[in-house]
Amino acid sequence: MWEMIWPILLVILSNTLYNICTKSTPSNVNVFATLMVTYITAAILTAIFFVFLLKPENVLSELSNINWTSFVLGMAIVGLELAYIFAFRAGWKVSSASLVANIGLAIVLIFVGAILYGENITLKQIIGIFVCIGGLLLINLG
Questions:
Q1: Which residue in 78, 83, 75 sits closest to 104, CA to CA?
Q2: So which residues are the signal peptide here (predicted)?
Q3: Which of 2, 99, 106, 134 gives a 20 to 30 Å CA spacing to 8?
Q4: Can you give the residue range of the structural domain that contains 100?
Q5: How far is the C-alpha of 31 from the C-alpha of 27, rounded, in Å?
Q6: Are residues 28 and 45 in the same domain?
Q7: In whole angstroms, how far apart are CA 86 and each of 32, 44, 89, 119, 140?
Q8: Per-residue pLDDT tens for 91-121?
């Protein structure tokens, strides 16, 4: 059970810190300068985890297993960072920006799951989509 819970708790903690830091990024700093420092920090931390904690037997062999997904994921992460920084600079509240984005994401991923992975779209999910759309309207009209 713990193996199911701890990753979600880490997502919640990390996303909380992420939103606090993104909202607190000074508006006078160049967005690419802050992202560069962010990714240098992330690269150093990841390298420490990879090399010293996991101790792969052959670093080059492990790196040779990487495919296109790592590069596209890197581009997607940069897109996420840029979008949130610009959203907060545009005036989105920290309490609603992530909520609105994640509701939209959840709706899109229902269709992605069906199209790319053959997952079934259930009646509950369709009802959930309409409930989410109603929630988005309430959040953005209030």
A1: 83
A2: none
A3: 134
A4: 93-142
A5: 8
A6: yes
A7: 12, 26, 5, 33, 18
A8: 999 989 999 999 999 999 999 999 999 999 9
Q: What is the distance between the alpha carbons of residues 142 and 75, in angstroms, rounded to a whole number? A: 33
Same domain (yes/no): 111, 81? no
One DSSP character per residue, 89-139 reads HTT--HHHHHHHHHHHHHHHHHHHHHHHH-PPPPHHHHHHHHHHHHHHHHH
Q: What predicted TM-score, i.e. pTM, was given to this entire model? A: 0.85
Hey, what are 68's tokens?
Answer: 């296109």
Positive or negative, the CA dihedral 86, 89, 92, 93 is positive
Extract the tokens encoding 9: 């708790």
Those residues whose C-beta lies under 8 Å from the C-beta of residue 120, and which sit 6 or more positions away, are 114
| pLDDT at residue 140, as a whole number | 81
